[in-house]
Design brief:
It is elongated, with a radius of gyration of 19 Å. 61% of the residues lie in helices and 0% in strands. It has 158 residues and is mostly helical.
Length: 158
């Protein structure tokens, strides 16, 4: 079978880009791909960390370990929602990133004001200090990206 290249598209774009007639979702293309990858990495790192802590030493710090597991679930939801096309997934992504921002601000503040509740750190403790403050910056970057890549209303008659 001979494959004829589509005009104006590189071989990589033809192989991995959207299929014929399907427009790429703006939130998961370009810079958005990097955002999705960072969220995926945080999903994995927070999930593995919390699972290990819960399974091996849950009694030492149940609140931080459960908060890390919750953070991992939020990161997973954000990753999926950022990667999926469509206005509905865009709204889910915004909601997940807002929950993440509230979580990192709330847990960060609580870990500073009531350190006795955090004998061990969670992903969001001290505003993500153990993760280089990326958990604090990531939702801000995510919200800006989601705003810039929000779905546009279809033009009348389109």
């Amino acid at each position: 079978m001979t494959h004829h290249p589509e005009p104006g598209r590189t071989r990589l774009q033809q192989r991995f880009g959207p299929r014929g007639g399907v427009r790429a979702d703006r939130k998961s293309s370009g810079f958005g791909r990097l955002v999705v990858v960072v969220y995926a990495v945080f999903s994995l790192s927070a999930g593995v960390r919390s699972l290990y802590q819960i399974l091996t030493d849950f009694g030492a710090a149940p609140l931080p370990y459960l908060l890390s597991a919750f953070a991992a679930a939020v990161y997973v939801l954000a990753t999926v929602a950022l990667a999926r096309p469509g206005a509905r997934w865009h709204r889910v992504a915004v909601a997940a990133v807002l929950v993440e921002l509230c979580g990192v601000l709330g847990v960060g503040l609580l870990s500073v004001l009531a350190p006795e509740l955090f004998p061990e750190a969670s992903v969001w403790s001290h505003f993500g200090q153990d993760y280089g403050y990326v958990p604090l910056v990531l939702p801000l970057v995510g919200l800006v990206w989601l705003w810039r890549s929000r779905p546009r209303a279809a033009a009348p008659g389109a």
